[in-house]
């Protein structure tokens, strides 16, 4: 057996034993506090939730979240391109310019539609 395999198996067994032992030690030795305040749900600083579970939210929140995801994923596509821009040459540069122009067109469209206006 190779030394890397033995080392990997030892590390895996060590982690498999150490994680449950730490969880049990935390449960046994950790501090406990019980009470009304401790058992309440914490909602981002709001003491108690106002309204019911069937409360309606504005579509603007969901629309903004989707727009954020779209433009965030765009940044994820730009990282590999930035790493390999020299190997891709002018073809890769042209492809990224087209991609960015499409995104800019979408941004201009949502700005003209007033999606980001909260009034």
Short account of what is shown:
With 119 residues, the protein is mainly alpha-helical.
Written account of the structure:
- The protein is mainly α and 119 residues long.
- It is 71% helix and 0% strand.
- The chain has a single domain, classed as NADH:ubiquinone/plastoquinone oxidoreductase, chain 3 (Methane Monooxygenase Hydroxylase, Chain G, domain 1, Up-down Bundle).
- The chain contains four helices and no strands.
- It is flat, with a radius of gyration of 26 Å.
- The total of beta strands comes to 0
Query: Hey, roughly how much beta strand do the residues contain?
Result: under 5%
CATH superfamily grouping:
NADH:ubiquinone/plastoquinone oxidoreductase, chain 3
**SSE order, as H and E?**
HHHH
Question: Regions with pLDDT < 50 over 5+ consecutive residues?
Answer: none
Shape: flat
Query: Main beta sheet: strand number and arrangement?
Result: none
Q: Regarding CATH, which class?
A: Mainly Alpha
Question: What does the average pLDDT come to?
Answer: 84
Share of helical residues: over 70%
Q: Please give the count of helices.
A: 4
Number of discrete domains: 1
* Integer-rounded radius of gyration: 26 Å
CATH architecture: Up-down Bundle
The N- to C-terminal Cα distance equals 69 Å
- Class from helix and strand fractions: mainly alpha
CATH topology descriptor: Methane Monooxygenase Hydroxylase, Chain G, domain 1
């Amino acid at each position: 057996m190779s030394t890397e395999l033995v080392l990997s198996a030892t590390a895996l067994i060590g982690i498999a034993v150490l994680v449950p032992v730490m969880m049990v030690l935390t449960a046994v030795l950790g501090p406990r506090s019980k009470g009304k305040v401790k058992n309440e749900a914490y909602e981002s600083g709001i003491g108690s939730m106002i309204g019911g579970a069937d409360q309606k939210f504005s579509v603007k929140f969901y629309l903004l979240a989707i727009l954020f995801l779209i433009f965030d994923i765009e940044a994820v596509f730009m990282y590999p391109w930035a790493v390999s821009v020299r190997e891709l040459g002018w073809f890769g540069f042209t492809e990224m310019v087209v991609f960015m122009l499409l995104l800019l067109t979408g941004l201009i469209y949502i700005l003209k539609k007033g999606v980001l206006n909260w009034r």
